[in-house]
Specification:
533 residues, mainly beta, Leucine-rich repeat, LRR (right-handed beta-alpha superhelix), 23-stranded mixed β-sheet, two-stranded parallel ribbon, 8 helices, 25% strand, elongated
Length: 533
C-alpha cells in the first residue's frame, strides 16, 4: 500500500451517502499517504454518520484535517502520524481518545464538553491547543489517564489538576514524565527535569484504584501524606533510584503492591494484601515489624534480594496470610517464629537461612498444605513433615535414601505432589531406595501420589518395581539422571499414568525413542527432551 498518496473520490465511490452504515474504520502503515480529501455532503448529513471507531496508525506523511461531523465517533486512535493535526473538538460523543506522535492536537471545550470522555492518552505531541481551566474541568469523567512527552501541556499544569480528576481509576506515569512533576506541590524538589518524588496531590484522586510507574530513573520516594483512599494496586518497575516507599496514610483498600527491578530500594510500606519484591539488590530491611492482626496481608513473595537479612517481626499476627514465598535471598538469616502457619510455604536458595528451626516449628501445624524447601543438615534426624501436606518439594538433596527412610513419606496420606531434586547425591542407585532394618523391600511412597518428579541423581540406575502399586499416579517427570537405563515397564507402570516426561537422561532417550518405544506407547502423553514422541 506504499503507493497510496491520497484518499478521495475513488475511495468514496459514486454514492450520495458513502459508508452511511460503517461503524469501524482503520488505516495501517500507509507510508506515503499525504492527504485525506473531504467528500461532498448532502443536506448537512455528515460523512461516516454511523462511524464509532476510527484508527490511523503508521502514516507519517498524512497532513491536513480529519473528517468532520463524526457525530457517532466514540473511539479515536491516532499513532505515528507526525504531520497530522488532530482536532478532537469535532467529536462530541468521544469516550476514548488515544493520540500519540502527531504534530498537533486541538481541544476546544467551547464547542465540545467531553462529558463522555473516560480514557485519555496523549503522548509525544509537540504542540497542543486548549483553554487550560476548561480543559481540566472537562476531564471530570476520565477514568484512565496517560500523558507523556508533552512539554507544552505539562508546563502549565499545577497540582489543582488532580482535584478535577474525580473519576480517575488508572494513572500511568512513564519515562520521567514532567506532567507528574507539575501535578504536585513538590515541584521545587525536582532535579534536572526528572521525577524525584511522587506528588502529594495523589490523595485527591478519590477514585484512583491502580497506579503504575515505570522507567522513572530519578524517582526516589513516595509521599508521606498518602495516596488515594481507594487505591488497590501499585506497580513500580525499573525505577533504579527508588529508595523509599510511603510509610504513612497508606489506604486500607490496598490489595497488591509489586516492585520489580528497583535496585536501590531500601524501605517499603507496612500495609497491603499482596507484597511482591523482586530484583532489589540493595534492599536490606523491609520494616521492623508488620502491623497487628488488623493487617490484611495475604501473600508475601520476595525474590532476588541478595542483601535482605530478615523479614519483619509479626508474621504470626498476619492472620490472613496464606502464602509465603522467598527465594534467592542469600543473606537472609532467619524468619520470625510463627504461631499460625500459612497454607503455602516456599523457601529456596536462601543459603544462610536457619531452616532447621523453621522445620521443627512446622512439625505439628495443621494449616500447612504445600511446602517447598532446600535440603539441610538435620532434616533426616530432627524433624518430620506435617501429615496433612498435599504438595512437597525438596531441593539440593545430599542423601535421598536417608531422607526418605527417616521421614516415612508413606505417612503423608494426603500427599498428591512430590518433587525431589538431588545435589551431589551419588548414593541413590534405585528409586524408591531399598529399605534397611525393615520388613519392606523398599521404602514406600504415599499411595495418594498424583504427580512425581525425580531430578538430579547422577548414579540412579533403576526405578523399583513398586511403581505398579501407585494407582493414582498420573504424571511422572524424570530429569538429569544420566545412568538411568530403563523404566519398570515389565512389572507394569500404573495404568493411571497419563503423562511421562524425560529430560537429559540419554540412556532412557536411546531406549524409548528406539526399539522399546512400544513399551510406553499406551501412555497418552510422552515427552523426551520436551519433544513429543
Amino acid at each position: 500500500m506504499d503507493a497510496v498518496e491520497s484518499v478521495g473520490v475513488e475511495f468514496y465511490g459514486e454514492s450520495d451517502l458513502p459508508f452511511h452504515v460503517l461503524e469501524t474504520l482503520e488505516f495501517r502503515e500507509l507510508k506515503n499517504w499525504k492527504k485525506w480529501s473531504p467528500c461532498q455532503q448532502n443536506e448537512g448529513v455528515g460523512l461516516f454518520s454511523c462511524l464509532k471507531e476510527l484508527s490511523i496508525r503508521g502514516c507519517p506523511k498524512l497532513e491536513g484535517d480529519l473528517p468532520e461531523k463524526l457525530d457517532s465517533l466514540a473511539q479515536l486512535e491516532i499513532f505515528g502520524c507526525e504531520e497530522l493535526v488532530v482536532s478532537v473538538s469535532k467529536y462530541k460523543q468521544l469516550h476514548r481518545s488515544n493520540i500519540e506522535k502527531c504534530k498537533m492536537v486541538v481541544y476546544d471545550t467551547s464547542t465540545v464538553g467531553f462529558d463522555l470522555l473516560e480514557s485519555l492518552t496523549i503522548s509525544n505531541i509537540p504542540e497542543l491547543r486548549f483553554q487550560k481551566e476548561a480543559f481540566m474541568k472537562s476531564l471530570k469523567n476520565v477514568k484512565k489517564l496517560k500523558i507523556t512527552g508533552c512539554e507544552e501541556l505539562t508546563c502549565c499544569f499545577q497540582d489543582r489538576l488532580l482535584k478535577h480528576l474525580i473519576s480517575l481509576g488508572r494513572l500511568y506515569i512513564e519515562d520521567n514524565s514532567i506532567l507528574v512533576e507539575k501535578l504536585g506541590i513538590e515541584a521545587k524538589q525536582l532535579v534536572c527535569g526528572s521525577l524525584v518524588k511522587v506528588p502529594q496531590g495523589l490523595h485527591h484522586l478519590t477514585s484512583l484504584k491502580e497506579l503504575r510507574i515505570s522507567l522513572c530513573s530519578s524517582l526516589v520516594s513516595f509521599p508521606d501524606v498518602g495516596l488515594s483512599p481507594c487505591l488497590q494496586v501499585i506497580v513500580i518497575e525499573d525505577c533504579e533510584s527508588l529508595l523509599h516507599f510511603a510509610k504513612y496514610r497508606i489506604p486500607p483498600s490496598l490489595k497488591r503492591i509489586e516492585i520489580t527491578n528497583c535496585g536501590n530500594l531500601k524501605s517499603l510500606i507496612e500495609k497491603e494484601e499482596e507484597l511482591e519484591i523482586g530484583g532489589c539488590g540493595q534492599l536490606k530491611l523491609i520494616s521492623e515489624r508488620f502491623l497487628d492482626d488488623s493487617c490484611q496481608l495475604e501473600e508475601i513473595h520476595i525474590w532476588e534480594c541478595p542483601n535482605l537479612k530478615s523479614l519483619p517481626e509479626g508474621l504470626s499476627d498476619l492472620t490472613n496470610l496464606w502464602s509465603l514465598i522467598v527465594w534467592d535471598c542469600q543473606s537472609l538469616v532467619s524468619l520470625p517464629r510463627m504461631n499460625v502457619w500459612p497454607r503455602v510455604i516456599r523457601i529456596e536458595n536462601c543459603d544462610k537461612l536457619e531452616v532447621a528451626q523453621l522445620a521443627r516449628d512446622m512439625m505439628h501445624t495443621s494449616n500447612l498444605e504445600k511446602l517447598s524447601i532446600d535440603y539441610f543438615e538435620g532434616l533426616t534426624t530432627t524433624t518430620s513433615f506435617p501429615t496433612n501436606l498435599t504438595s512437597l518439594a525438596i531441593y539440593k538433596i545430599k542423601n535421598c535414601k536417608a531422607l526418605m527412610e527417616s521421614q516415612g513419606l508413606q505417612r503423608l496420606a494426603s500427599l498428591r505432589e512430590l518433587r525431589l531434586r538431588g545435589e551431589d547425591d551419588g548414593g541413590l542407585v534405585s528409586f524408591p531406595p531399598a529399605a534397611e532394618n525393615s520388613k519392606e523391600t523398599e521404602i514406600l511412597l504415599p499411595r495418594s501420589l498424583v504427580d512425581l518428579s525425580i531430578r538430579g541423581f547422577p548414579n540412579l540406575k533403576k526405578l523399583s518395581k513398586g511403581f505398579q502399586f501407585h494407582t493414582s499416579l498420573e504424571s511422572l517427570f524424570i530429569s538429569d539422571c544420566p545412568k538411568l537405563t530403563t523404566l519398570p515397564v515389565e512389572e507394569g507402570l500404573p495404568l493411571s499414568l497419563e503423562r511421562l516426561y524425560i529430560d537429559n537422561c540419554p540412556l532412557l532417550e536411546e531406549r524409548y525413542k528406539g526399539r522399546y518405544r512400544h513399551q510406553i506407547a499406551h501412555i497418552p502423553c510422552v515427552l523426551i527432551n520436551f519433544e513429543d514422541i
